[in-house]
Amino acid sequence: AARPAADYMAGLNAAQCAAVEALDGPVLLLAGAGTGKTRALTTRIAHLIAMGRARPGDILAVTFTNKAAREMKERIARLMGETVEGMPWLGTFHSISVKILRRHAELVGSGTMHLKPSFTILDTDDQLRLLKQLIAAENIDEKRWPARMLAGLIDGWKNRALTPSRVPPGESHAYDGRGAALYAAYQERLIALNAVDFGDLLLHCVTIFQAHPDILARWQQRFSYILVDEYQDTNAAQYLWLRLLAQAHRNICCVGDDDQSIYGWRGAEVGNILRFEQDFPGAQVIRLEQNYRSTPHILAAASGLIASNKGRLGKTLWTEAEGGERVRLIGHWDSEAEARWIGEEIEAFHGGHRAAVGKRDLNDIAILVRATHQMRAFEDRFLSIGLPYRVIGGPRFYERQEIRDALAYFRLAVSPADDLAFERVVNVPKRGLGEKAVQTIQREARERGLSLLEGAAAAVQAGALSGKAAAGLREFVQGMGRWHADAIDSQSSHVELAERILDESGYTAMWQNDRSPDAPGRLDNLKELVKALEGFENLQGFLEHIALVMDAAEGEQSDEVSIMTLHAAKGLEFPVVFLPGWEDGLFPSQRSMDESGLKGLEEERRLAYVGITRAEDLATISFAGNRRMYGQWQSSLPSRFVDELPEDHVEVLTPPGLYGGGFGAAMAQAGTTSMHERAARADVYNSPGWKRMQDRAAERAAPVHRTPIVIDAEPGARFSVGDRVTHP
Ligand code: ATP
Ligand code: MG
């Protein structure tokens, strides 16, 4: 059907045009990666305005990340040019909720206690401090019931839009049956402080909408059109929020892909997308099948992989594009070799030395990792070869809280006069030193012209503190004395010292006892930090390196490689994508499989699908034979996802150096389904390359653990997928 298409519609296919033009009533755009869902969504906004259906301010568009919101704003500005004034309400659920909540803050609370429009948004540290006070006030043992776990519980309830009075009785058994009571107390304290936490932003909006139909009606009128991107990742509270706002006019358009649902662990419910037609009867469901992003090999590899998931809606994807490279697969000796190789590849692409890829800007290249602790190897490598990079969606490795804490300990051990480091860690973990105690130390130091650490020693000597504070501080000062002596003793191992400092100070234990979901990741990061020390002569040298790293990280550069987690990459695209760390246990992550079984594994597989489908021209998957995880060198096996890639669309590269011709060559011999079977069949486990790998593992691990590493499997043994070769 030929029709005069507006400029902004030029090039859209028929299904996309349908999605853009179906302005009235509920619309679900359900389609696979790279099919132009987001593009259709932004075009819809332009169309609404161009057709005079809505002014920009009448439109509400929800994205998943702030980065996506920014990108969408740019897309819309490009589409609409300078012709329209104002912009739609465009942002994440949270950023839009803040704006709404500021206007009705006084409706939150009861009696004389109400939120004010100037409310502050608490960060996690403040939140925990508050919860700790409440737990203590209830005389509950915080060791048994840590504040972080309560924070996780409350967050979970808020994700489900449950106010304290609505928490199901069965879920309140934690905290000696006072879970919901603590939650209620916490909410009261927040209001008294004129503060909200992140989860409150949505919860309060929903509560206000439900309690004040007049206010809800105003917002329903105001937003005459609602659009939602990445709908598969909405949680129950967000879903309720949307339904309340949309139920009057029902002009809601949601776009999503059930195969890209990756936030189940945070309460997102993929069921929301499957239920759309029931919730909004008469909804139009539009499917898109043409992919505009990736080459056929990339698409086929991703589709082949996701086919292993059960219970999918199922989708067809095709592309007009032809040619292109297969997805490249390469195994490395260890995670450092992996980082080195990727660095070299990027330099080659950047310099235009690879005909098949063409000359590439660094902005065209992304490294997508499963776990944040993987980033360090890349950051260190890129800094040392001077390759500009940026880390998206989270602090850089050396800026993380636990890393800064640990570095402060090391700094203080090396330079006892480092007062900033002292202040950072003197009460981390908690040593019973309140503000008063710290002031006493500061006064002591100031009056006698001492460093804070010396001041602390003097305060202990003089008996200026009492009780728990005195004992805690004495232990800290004595520990520092020992660690300092070791730090300046060239005979002692600085790697061991670092581990000892973290153990003896109670810092490691603090995170081990922490039951919050991010605690295991922080422990991994700490181990990663200790591992980084191995490359240096002593602590001092390492700290100098870090100071430079932090410094170099300052300047803004425009052409940079992007490093981010797979989660942060959702919705984005890059011509060249590296996917490192495809090893069983890391990806799929052991933790998510342990916690959620098959469901966890399938979510991991969707994450892999998201990763591959970010690539336009070239995707490179890699794994390392050795990686230090949980403080031990482990010979890891390639991810089961590697086995699930359709072989026709994969090219196995031979790694440079050490065991080229071993692992790599074995993998190239196609014919069986399992990589490990293939390796065993090619007698890799008897090959000199594999033996060298074992020897090197022993060598590397020895200085740390002082016991030679033995791989507890017979050479030549058959491995089945998921088997793990561990060191004792
Ligand atoms: P994801 O599931 O990863 O979020 P998506 O379905 O939202 O993907 P988009 O990001 O909208 O896909 O589009 C993918 C790429 O294809 C973009 O570069 C977009 O500009 C391009 N594209 C979309 N539709 C068309 C079209 N009709 N013609 C040409 N290019 C298109
Ligand atoms: Mg998209």
TrEMBL record:
InterPro entries: DExx_box_DNA_helicase_dom_sf, DNA_helicase_UvrD-like_C, DNA_helicase_UvrD/REP, P-loop_NTPase, UvrD-like_ATP-bd. Keywords: ATP-binding, DNA-binding, Helicase, Hydrolase, Isomerase, Nucleotide-binding. Residues 296-571 form the UvrD-like helicase C-terminal domain. GO terms for biological process: recombinational repair; response to radiation. One of its GO terms (molecular function) is ATP binding. GO terms for cellular component: cytosol; DNA helicase complex. Its EC number is 5.6.2.4. It comes from the Bacteria. This is DNA 3'-5' helicase.
